Amino acid sequence: MRRHLLQALSILPGLALAQPGSLDPTFGDAGVVLLQPGFHFDEASAVATLPDNTVILAGWTWGLFGPDTIRGLVVHLLDDGSLDPSFGMGGYAPIIGGERNSLNGLAVTSSGFVVAGSALAEYDGTDPDPDTQVLLARISTTGAIDPGFGSGGITKTDIGSGDDVAADIAVQPDGRIVVAGYTEDANGEKNGLIMRYDADGTLDGTFSSDGKLVITAWSGEDALNDVAVLPDGSIVGAGYATVGGVRKSMLVKVSTDGTYDSAFGIDGLLVPELSDSTSSAHGILVADDGILVCGKIEESFLETVAYLARFMSDGTPDPVFNGNGLALVTGSPHGDALDLALQDDGKVLVCGKSESEDIEPGEFLLARFNPDGSVDDTFGSNGAVTTDIDPGPSYARSIAIRPDGRIVLAGAAWLDYSDIAVARYLPDNCAVFPSISPEGPILCPNGTGELSTEAFDTYQWYKNGAEIPGAVGQTLTVNSADDVGSWFKVRTTIDTCFGFSDSILVDGHVFLLPTVSQTGDAPNLIGDNGEQIYCQGDDPILVLSMPYDTNVQWSVNGEPIPGANDTLYAVPGSGSYTVEGAPSVCPDFIQNAGITIEMDFHPYVQPTIYQTGILL
Fold it and tell me: Out of 60, 272, 313, 531, which residue is the most buried by the measure of CB atoms under 10 Å away?
């Protein structure tokens, strides 16, 4: 039986704490879930967690509706990593917005989920490379398209002469939707793009006059990969710009009306000096009075490193953060940081992919930094964890932190085709192994029992795999009428760690009805009314059947007989006899035998000799 041994595990042989960054064994298959809704290529581009600790994914699937169909896809996973059968089509909610579309961004709102990506403007089967438009859609919490958003739940926006793509999305507190990505000009050159929509899916005309801001500061390509909203309503984006023929990380900051913030960088644009070589920014978030950015630096074709940088609100590097505002993921060579998240304690997580020196297939990368930018050496190896998800390459596109602190990465894993890949990790030392006592409870008829576990911070009891509403205490009362034959388990937490007990079966005792038999003297006669007729001095004995050997009480003429508390009763005289009793294992389950035994003792008559006839 597993027991909670949080303090003792470090000293008991054969037992050890799960280290920070370990895969969560209670999720999917040893911490990993692989999904293949289509027949070719599937990928998760964005992940978010909900207040109930379940997971929402956004991405795309190829082949779910036919061999040539690519659809944006929203997926809902339950706490254990299984698909939510009540969401959409068995856990999948496809976006029917043209023949081909895909999703890159995801935001959670009070009424559901807003997703962003791209969709073909038109597809008639003849153009092998048609242009795409920015796509927005709103999905309800049940997985249905929200018809109150845009046109039938979907909004498409055509901007430039080529492809228009939404790379990510953020929702302001007032419900307005900010999108970042790129648009292609007539020459096929990408230009960074920020757009803002009203909550109903229409472009916000108060932002940059028409709802769209296209970055045209550089002659070479530039694009945005991520976007975040500051508390004052201003917007920051991260991506890359081509400067002097070299791709560099690029940040942009605009005011709430869509004009560049002149106090940030140079007229709202910033190309930080991270390295002399190529770099690109992939993720951005707002932290207190600063901005956190992650990405990769390419020292050469075979030398890349994932980075995390922190900037002040004006775009200058934060000198307190690792001494110069820049930190590198040293625990994993050849890394690329694609997204980042902030823990409640100020530690920063980045995710992406890691490759070996000889460019073997990539692996999921997860790294953690302390609030000051130093590597968190308690996390994984030198602050980083890599996970080989599949024999082929894999990468984590997005990261989210559950309310309980568990870390969720989402992306893709490849073999012949790609699968949606999701992994969940432990943030702290965890050894939460609750057990239930008693291990195999057997309830008495009409009885109750109590299940209990050890002391933890929180509790949630489950019956037959489903949460029991309100069952959040250390103990749980079960009863024979409702719970016999059901399986119970408990989920407990300590700080950010949680664990499930083994399931136990609540069983119930079943007894035959009590019966009464007789031994001793047999009746001489059976009367007309069924009474047993004995002679005075006969010694009949009534016997109550087993297992009714506890709380036995014999009665005569409806009155309990003092001291008649054994399963055997020697009947002393006439009367109507009844009995009740209970099994010793269920002393409160007192049952009446249900029969009345009538006994009639005739008095003993002394024989008398009478004289008749003539005496001689």
Answer: 60
